[in-house]
Amino acid sequence: MSKNMLRWDAGLKTETQASHKIQLRVRYSEVDSLGIVYHVNHLNYFELARSAWIREKWMSYQKIEESGFGFVVTNAQIKYISPIYYDEVIEIIAILRKIERTRVIFDYEILRKDNQKLLCNGITELCYIDKHKKPTRIPEQMKEILN
User: Fold this and answer.
1) Which of 32, 54, 83, 126 could join 71 in a cystine, given CB atoms 3.0 to 4.6 angstroms apart?
2) Among 57, 55, 65, residue whose Cα is nearest residue 131
3) Mapping DSSP to helix (H, G, I), strand (E, B) and coil, where does residue 75 land?
């Protein structure tokens, strides 16, 4: 197992300063014919929580991109534990695991709001890039704010 792979049996620390939680009600457009969230939408949920986390702690993706920089996903892993159904209210938690020279690693949990049952967890690794789409050092100011 890669050192960066999520250990599926490891419990995540969801109540830390390095976490951000959002809630949403599953929309009809996100489910398949069985009323279960289509698998790719879990990544969209991760993105929503991560974007909100970065916006709250630092600045919006839009402002980052306007300044000539950005983040690109270089690795994504998902562990599906239990189905998520149409019209359920879920909580998506993004947890900053690590900041390195040019990349950040986030862990995620998706929980059913009413009983806090873990439905899915995952990880994404993002590379910080410049306007030429080349990896670049994450600004120290950002590292200080995010840590």
Assistant:
1) 126
2) 65
3) strand
For 89, the token pair is: 């209210």
Classify 34 as helix, strand or coil. coil
Is residue 127 assigned to a domain? yes
Contacts of 58 (CB under 8 A, 6+ apart): 64, 142, 145, 146
Between CA 123 and CA 33 the distance in angstroms is: 27
Q: Fill in the amino acid letter for 4.
A: N
Number of structural domains the chain divides into: 1
Q: What is the pLDDT of residues 88-137, one digit of tens each?
A: 999 999 999 999 999 999 999 999 999 999 999 999 999 999 999 999 99
CATH number at residue 135: 3.10.129.10
